[in-house]
Amino acid sequence: MYPSSKRSSWYFSRTLLETPDINQHHMYRALSILAEEADTIEQHVYETSKTMVNRDSRVLYYDCTNFYFEIGQADGLRQFGVSKENRPNPIVQMGMFMDGSEIPLSLVITPGNTNEQTTLKPLEKKILREFHLSQMVVCTDAGLSSTSNRLYNHTASRAFITTQSIKKLQKVDREWALDTGNWSRGTKGKDDWKTNIILSSIPTDEAHYDTIYYKERWVKIQGLEQRLIVSFSPKYQAYQRAIRAHQIKRALKNVENPASLKKKRQNDPKRFLKVQHFTDNGEVAGKENVVLDEERIAKEAQYDGFYAVCTDLKSDAGEIVQLNHRRWMIEDSFRIMKSEFKARPVYVRTDHHIEAHFLTCFLALLVFRILENMLDHEFTCEDIIDNLRDMKMRELPGEGYVPEYVRNDFTDKLHDVFGFRTDMEVVTKKNMKNILKQTKVEPMLWRFDA
Length: 450
Hints:
Number of helices: 14
Number of domains: 3
Structural class: alpha+beta
Strand order of the largest sheet: 3-2-1-4-5-12-9-8-6-7
Strand content: 15-25%
Radius of gyration: 26 Å
Number of strands: 15
Order of helices and strands: HHHEEEHEHEHEEEEHEEHEHHHHEEHEH
Helix content: 25-40%
Oligomer: single chain
């Protein structure tokens, strides 16, 4: 519940019913040991968690993010790199595998200036070696889909699914992907399977708004034969058009300032503006004139609603599209780390302590995902974390404990799942001892809560 600051975690431990017999300096000294034993801990909690929830290891999702440090100079793992939050501070990079059950599997911490694509294979090799996984499909985004990574998973026992930029395809493949004819809808074997659909004839009513259309063919990208599946979504098209409309509106606020157009990021709204040195009649303009770049807008708009993935699987295209769509889960896990668990900024300094800090965040995320799974995904992350932090008990000397939290749907579900109740008027000391005893019975994962 508080993996961010070791100091705040120690103070929080003072409020627990079973106060650990440690001092604050013990926590910091333990960080080096945690870092050294990280692989063993990850392997153990994976094996233990399988006895509690179903872990789908057939499909593994991999992604990277980074975390900033509020320092001015780089050292060790803390290096200057491309921050995903556009911060000028040194960063460290985290790569993480997550299984198909949305539960984290393993992580790696690398210097902030490391190429993301080089982090996948070493961590995957560790998983294959220590987690005893043999057959799996590795799903990544375009930034991690190097040819080397695809070839590594292009084997008899492993496969890959990775997003593919349509803009970076060869011209003939790009034209085929954007062509409005010969699309399919539905899943093979289902009644709604239809082919030879023309995108321009798609109904715009709400009933068809969530429908996904796709086409596929085998292509050769950098010498590797792979299956290209292109999908089109009217809903995604509307979303991208709305985003662009807002960006154009923001861009127009800069038309009176040509100097502001010299520096533009990839998704900066100013990319839709250009400086015009000639009038519409071809004469030299008296001053620089900033206008909308209609050609740039039209060029980007042609990709609205389209999405592509590459794979070496021969499964149904609709199933592959759905598997890839679930990549958002690992991005959501990074969001939880950064927001709910406050894993940034980091308050430790040495490399071993940094690695141990993120191990504690990883374990907190793992326990949260297991709890979320056991609660049947009925509650949001904010509901679970906030309610857990509010579930405090007050001791009545000689009588027992009384709850200081408000009973609600979450606490009722929690008690039903774990088979005990703490929302009674008074919980006797005997009953509380029995409840605490359950947390020490193997294979309970909570043995790692310290």
